[in-house]
Design goal:
Elements lengths: L2 H8 L5 E4 L5 E4 H17 L7 E5 L4 H12 L3 E4 L6 H11 L3 E4 L1 H9 L5 E4 L7 H6 L15 E6 L9 E5 H14 L8 E3 L6 H14 L3 E3 L5 H7 L5 E4 L1 H10 L12 E4 L6 H11 L4 E6 L3 E5 L19 E5 L12 E6 L6 E2 L3 H6 L7 E9 L5 E6 L4 E3 L2 E3 L1 H9 L4 E11 L3 E10 L7 H9 L10 E4 L13 H8 L1
Parallel strand pairs: 1-10, 3-4, 3-5, 5-6, 9-10, 9-11, 11-12, 12-13, 23-24
Antiparallel strand pairs: 1-2, 7-8, 8-17, 13-14, 15-16, 16-18, 18-19, 20-21, 22-23
The structure holds adenosine monophosphate.
Adenosine monophosphate binds next to strand 13, strand 18 and strand 19.
Length: 493
Amino acid sequence: MNVYSLFHERTANAGTFLLSPNLQEISSYADLHDYAGQLAAGIEAIGVKPGDRVIAQVDKTPQALYLYFACLRIGAIYLPLNTAYQEDELAFFVNDASPKLIVSDPSRASFFQQLSGDHEVLTLDAEGEGSLIQACLLTKSADICERADNDIAVILYTSGTTGRPKGAMVTHGNLAANGLTLLEAWQWQAGDVMLHALPIFHIHGLFVATHLPVLNGSPIILLPAFDPNHVADLLPHATVYMGVPTNYTRLLDSGRLNKETCRNMRLFTSGSAPLLPQTFTEFADTTGFEIVERYGMTETGMNTSNPIHGVRKPGTVGPPLSGVSARVVDDHGTPAETGTPGNLEVKGTNVFKGYWQLPEKTEEEFTEDGFFKTGDIATKDDDGYIAIVGRNKDMIISGGLNVYPKEIETVIDRLPGVLESAVIGLPHSDFGEGVCAVIVAEEGAELDEQVLTEELKSRLANFKVPKWIHVLPSLPRNTMGKVQKNVLREMFG
Ligand code: AMP
């Protein structure tokens, strides 16, 4: 079915949809369906049909969310783009996706207009105003269009840190299945209020942090962006917060968190990048809450999660969610021994349909028995908990031996004076690749490369000991908190 119908059904008797940062009601669920119906009729009048792509490169506003729901409603394919993308990148997406409609900030409208293609351009600014709203003002409501589970709902370009971005085709069935699974797994309940500070051009903020409150008919406090003080101010009014690991470290650094600020909270989740065990522990000591770390990706939605009831193991992403099969295999597809790193493959109704207009690439990424090759290297423990130890592309082969960056990062992070680290492979005349560690010191700590190397030699096999160590004030990260190892490779390569 059209996932919009599911949202519609589940919010039939719901009250508030969006709350502003000063806790005023912006819209009810009835308003959401009215606005989405109206916007849908407006963009239909422009000529958008089921299956047409609608690109949105817009700020995070209530209207941007209404536009998303409007697209779902009429079966148009929603294609959100990071607001940080620059013109060359945007030209690539427009050419690749050939949209029927592009909605952008007014400052970008003329750029989009002059790109070749059969698209209309409408605007939506950071205040939620623009020609999109004008064009849809006097329209009637459009009906919910029938869709099959396998029809594409959204195309999300992977944030892949190397190579050409690929459009992941996420279906109505994927969104419905993954949403309902998470609703159950994280025990959404009456009275829940979501504090939403994530961007909405990415799976984490759009699918997880928006779909779940909608499926539960819960209010969302919508923040335009993450700000630790803002989040701390609003935590007492929320029950659920979802963040990337850097949100949590910045919240802890703000000194604004304590058990009192979190008195009404029920759930904190983390994902999109690894949560340091140190952050997990510090957060638990400060707030009394163990962050629920989960693991997902654009292509698969959420695959695993630490449990609500049961042990949450720091440094792991928990067991597979219900309906998801996850296996760790070696390069020949043979299941890896417990605790041995291998390729993580997943299968389930959460897994996407393939890459937009790349049938061969899609085929390469699936095994013969239908598992998707995530490209993540993982281990599984005796209890079935999965730990992500690196990315396939990040794996370093030094003198023919495999080195998993995460293993070394974990050892480095435990050394005194180290805040965090990133390990990359760099060309090495003897070994092909050598291990390079980029380290951030704790505030006030002085790190000595010689001393660090000696320490690491006593803890790691020689081939894993970094051949180069660099100390930086901070690690380069993208908007989702992922360390940009490609930037480090360029800096030190
Ligand atoms: P994206 O498609 O942008 O959501 O990126 C997905 C990738 O982020 C995954 O393939 C993992 O490499 C990484 N990732 C997501 N969640 C976690 C997590 N909890 N721990 C470690 N890596 C994660």
